[in-house]
């Protein structure tokens, strides 16, 4: 029987590998968009702001505009919808299926209320673009300084 030198780090490395494997297989990673977890997936957005409006862009490839619902309540924007999976045809077998399908939803709180009556939505080449004008009360105003004389 040969004597083997004990290395305490050998067990620690295998424990680390086991924990990494456990965490990767057990939990859904943030931003996962596979739609296979039974719940609604999140929707990545680009939101920009200027003095007068917010611009929101969302990539929705393969989603029909009729399957998207956009609501604005105060300063909260909600986009929800559903994309449908292709049905497997007889005599056809999937080798790889990574495109997402299922329900999606995203709510975002904007820094100021928007005027939903003047909002505009466009859908071109799978990209939803929203133009959300700020409400008049939320827009910056310039205040002029008087000459400093008291009026009687």
Describe this structure in words.
The structure is a single chain. The protein is 12% helix and 30% strand. 9% of the residues are buried. The chain has a domain at 39-85 and 101-138: Immunoglobulin-like. The protein has 152 residues and is α+β, with helices and mostly antiparallel strands. It has a four-stranded antiparallel beta sheet with strand order 1-2-7-6, with no helix packed on it. It contains one helix and seven strands. Residues 31-39 have low confidence and may be disordered. A hairpin with a 3-residue loop joins strand 1 (45-49) and strand 2 (53-59).
From the spread of the alpha carbons, the general shape counts as flat
* Number of distinct helices: 1
Radius of gyration, rounded? Answer: 26 Å
Strand line-up of the largest beta sheet:
1-2-7-6
Distance between the termini: 110 Å
Instruction: Please give the number of β-strands.
Output: 7
The SSE string, one letter per element, is HEEEEEEE
Overall residue-averaged pLDDT value? 80
Features:
152 residues; Immunoglobulin-like; four-stranded antiparallel sheet; three-stranded antiparallel sheet; 30% strand
């Amino acid at each position: 029987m040969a004597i083997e030198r004990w290395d305490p780090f050998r067990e620690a490395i295998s424990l680390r590998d086991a924990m990494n494997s456990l965490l990767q297989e057990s939990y859904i990673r943030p931003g996962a968009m596979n739609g296979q977890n039974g719940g609604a997936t999140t929707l990545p957005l680009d939101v920009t702001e200027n003095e007068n409006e917010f611009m929101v862009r969302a990539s929705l490839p393969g989603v029909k505009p009729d399957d998207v619902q956009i609501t604005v309540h105060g300063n909260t924007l909600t986009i929800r919808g559903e994309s449908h999976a292709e049905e497997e045809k007889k005599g056809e077998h999937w080798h790889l299926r990574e495109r997402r399908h299922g329900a999606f939803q995203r709510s975002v709180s904007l820094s100021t209320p928007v005027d939903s009556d003047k909002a505009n939505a466009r859908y071109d080449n799978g990209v939803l673009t929203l133009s959300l004008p700020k409400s008049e009360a939320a827009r910056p105003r310039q205040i002029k300084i008087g000459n400093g004389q008291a009026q009687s």
